[in-house]
C-alpha cells in the first residue's frame, strides 16, 4: 500500500516538475485542514489531544515551486490529536504543519479576503486551526479541525521596478546594473517572467531591482501579458520607466508610437492598473542613445520630458492619462555603455535616499505636531482641575 502511494506521489511530482519547467509561479491554491481532536475517555475523565494546526512561515529563498514540490496534491494536513487512553489520560497534541513560503506572500481566503501578509523573513500566520480534544464539555468527542481553501499570492519585493514596452532594453539594463542574468534578444516578449537582481554599491549597500516582461498598449484589456506582472511593482519604492528613443511598434498592424507617446501610454497603463502607483517616484530612462539619429530624435521631445503636461498637446486622445507620473530625473542612456550605467546607478541611489529623507522629515513633523497637541491637552486638563478662575 505504502509502495503504491509512494509511486503515485513520485509520478505526480514528476508531472509537476515537467509542467513547471521554465514556468514562473506567482499564485498557488492550497487546501488546508487542521488535525482532528482526539476523543476523550469518559470512564476516567480523560481528555483527547488537540488537533495540530497549519501555519505558513515566510522563508528567504523559498519559491512557490518549492511549495508545490513538497505538496504535489496541493493539500496540507496537520496531525490528529491522540485519543485519551488508560495509559495516557491526556492524549498527545497532533503535530503542527509549518509550510515554508516565499517572503512577500499574501494569504487570501476564498473570496479574496486577506488573512495575512508575510512580507518579512520569519513572519508566520495561523492558516487552519486544529480541533479541540474530547472532554466532559463536548461529550468526550474530539472536534474536526478547520478546513479551508487558501490562495498564496506572491508579490515580489524589490526596491526598484522596471516598466517599459517590449524591446526597450529593460533586461539589457538590469544585466548591466545587477547580478541578474536575464535573456536579451532583439524581439519583443523575450522576458516572460519577472526576475530580481541586486545592485551593489561601493559602500556595500544593496538595492534590488525587478526586471519585468514588457507591457503593451491595451495591457489593461489583457493584451500581451496583460497587467498580471504589474503587481510586482506595487511594493517597489521607485519606478524606472524605460523607453526606446525611436519609440515602439508591436507589429505592422499596430500604430507606431514615438518615445513621448510611449511615456504617456505607460503612464496610462500604470494608472489603469492602480492609480496609487502614480504616487511613486519615477526616473525616466531614454534608451538606445548610441544609435544613429538618436540625438536629432531626442531634440524633438526633450522640452516635454521636463513638463509632461505641456507635451499632452501632442498626445493622441486614447493615450491621455488622467494623472501624470512624477518624473524625478530624465536620463538619456545607452544600456550598452558602462559609463552611462554608472549614471543610472547613482540616480537610483540618490532618488531612493532623497525620498527616504523626505519621509523621515514628514514623520518628524507629524510627531512634533502630536507633541504640541499633547502639551496643549495636558495644559487644558490642568486648568480644568484648578477650577474656574474668579475675576
Ligand atoms: N543599440 C542599442 N541596442 C540596445 C540597447 N539596449 C538594448 N538594446 C537591444 O535591444 C534589444 C532588446 O533588448 P532587451 O534588453 O531584451 O529588451 P527588453 O526591454 O528586456 O525586452 P522584453 O523582454 O521583450 O520586454 C536587444 O537586441 C538589445 O541588444 C542600447 O542601449 N543600444
Ligand atoms: Mg527583457
Automatic annotation (TrEMBL):
<dbReference type="InterPro" id="IPR006169">
    <property type="entry name" value="GTP1_OBG_dom"/>
</dbReference>
<comment type="similarity">
    <text>Belongs to the TRAFAC class OBG-HflX-like GTPase superfamily. OBG GTPase family.</text>
</comment>
<dbReference type="InterPro" id="IPR031167">
    <property type="entry name" value="G_OBG"/>
</dbReference>
<dbReference type="Pfam" id="PF01018">
    <property type="entry name" value="GTP1_OBG"/>
</dbReference>
<dbReference type="InterPro" id="IPR027417">
    <property type="entry name" value="P-loop_NTPase"/>
</dbReference>
<keyword id="KW-0342">GTP-binding</keyword>
<keyword id="KW-0690">Ribosome biogenesis</keyword>
<dbReference type="GO" id="GO:0005525">
    <property type="term" value="F:GTP binding"/>
</dbReference>
<keyword id="KW-0539">Nucleus</keyword>
<feature type="domain" description="OBG-type G">
    <location>
        <begin position="158"/>
        <end position="353"/>
    </location>
</feature>
<dbReference type="Pfam" id="PF01926">
    <property type="entry name" value="MMR_HSR1"/>
</dbReference>
<dbReference type="GO" id="GO:0005730">
    <property type="term" value="C:nucleolus"/>
</dbReference>
<dbReference type="InterPro" id="IPR014100">
    <property type="entry name" value="GTP-bd_Obg/CgtA"/>
</dbReference>
<keyword id="KW-0547">Nucleotide-binding</keyword>
<feature type="region of interest" description="Disordered">
    <location>
        <begin position="356"/>
        <end position="391"/>
    </location>
</feature>
<feature type="domain" description="Obg">
    <location>
        <begin position="22"/>
        <end position="157"/>
    </location>
</feature>
<feature type="compositionally biased region" description="Basic and acidic residues">
    <location>
        <begin position="371"/>
        <end position="391"/>
    </location>
</feature>
<protein>
    <recommendedName>
        <fullName>GTP-binding protein 10</fullName>
    </recommendedName>
</protein>
<dbReference type="InterPro" id="IPR006073">
    <property type="entry name" value="GTP-bd"/>
</dbReference>
<dbReference type="GO" id="GO:0042254">
    <property type="term" value="P:ribosome biogenesis"/>
</dbReference>
<dbReference type="InterPro" id="IPR036726">
    <property type="entry name" value="GTP1_OBG_dom_sf"/>
</dbReference>
<dbReference type="InterPro" id="IPR045086">
    <property type="entry name" value="OBG_GTPase"/>
</dbReference>
Amino acid at each position: 500500500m505504502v509502495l503504491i502511494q509512494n509511486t503515485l506521489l513520485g509520478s505526480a511530482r514528476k508531472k509537476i516538475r515537467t509542467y513547471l519547467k521554465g514556468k514562473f509561479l506567482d499564485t498557488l491554491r492550497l487546501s488546508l485542514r487542521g488535525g482532528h481532536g482526539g476523543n476523550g475517555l469518559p470512564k476516567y475523565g480523560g481528555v483527547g489531544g488537540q488537533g495540530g494546526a497549519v501555519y505558513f512561515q515566510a522563508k528567504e529563498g523559498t519559491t512557490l515551486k518549492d511549495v508545490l514540490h513538497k505538496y504535489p496534491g496541493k493539500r496540507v494536513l496537520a496531525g490528529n490529536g491522540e485519543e485519551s487512553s488508560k495509559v495516557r489520560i491526556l492524549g498527545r497534541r497532533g503535530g503542527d504543519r509549518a509550510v515554508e513560503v516565499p517572503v512577500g506572500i499574501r494569504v487570501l481566503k476564498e473570496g479574496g479576503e486577506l488573512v495575512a501578509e508575510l512580507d518579512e523573513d520569519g513572519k508566520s500566520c495561523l492558516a487552519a486551526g486544529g480541533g479541540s480534544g474530547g472532554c466532559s464539555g463536548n461529550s468526550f468527542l474530539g472536534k474536526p479541525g478547520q478546513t479551508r481553501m487558501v490562495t498564496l499570492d506572491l508579490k515580489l519585493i524589490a526596491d526598484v521596478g522596471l516598466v517599459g514596452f517590449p524591446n526597450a532594453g529593460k533586461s539589457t539594463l538590469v544585466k548591466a546594473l545587477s547580478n541578474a542574468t536575464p535573456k536579451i534578444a532583439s524581439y519583443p516578449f523575450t522576458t516572460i517572467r519577472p526576475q530580481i537582481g541586486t545592485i551593489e554599491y561601493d559602500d556595500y549597500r544593496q538595492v534590488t531591482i525587478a526586471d519585468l516582461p514588457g507591457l503593451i498598449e491595451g495591457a489593461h484589456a489583457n493584451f500581451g501579458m496583460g497587467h498580471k506582472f504589474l503587481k510586482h511593482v506595487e511594493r517597489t519604492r521607485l519606478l524606472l520607466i524605460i523607453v526606446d528613443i525611436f519609440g515602439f511598434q508591436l507589429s505592422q498592424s499596430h500604430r507606431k508610437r514615438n518615445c513621448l507617446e510611449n511615456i504617456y501610454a505607460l503612464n496610462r497603463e500604470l494608472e489603469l492598473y492602480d492609480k496609487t502607483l502614480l504616487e511613486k517616484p519615477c526616473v525616466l530612462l531614454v534608451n538606445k542613445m548610441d544609435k544613429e539619429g538618436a540625438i536629432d530624435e531626442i531634440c524633438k521631445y526633450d522640452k516635454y520630458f521636463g513638463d509632461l503636461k505641456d507635451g499632452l498637446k501632442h498626445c493622441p486622445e486614447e493615450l491621455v492619462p488622467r494623472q501624470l507620473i512624477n518624473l524625478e530625473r530624465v536620463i538619456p542612456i545607452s544600456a550598452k555603455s558602462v559609463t552611462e550605467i554608472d549614471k543610472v546607478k547613482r540616480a537610483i541611489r540618490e532618488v531612493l535616499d532623497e525620498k527616504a529623507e523626505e519621509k523621515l522629515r514628514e514623520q518628524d513633523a507629524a510627531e512634533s505636531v502630536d507633541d504640541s497637541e499633547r502639551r496643549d491637552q495636558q495644559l487644558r486638563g490642568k486648568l480644568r482641575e484648578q477650577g474656574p478662575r474668579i475675576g
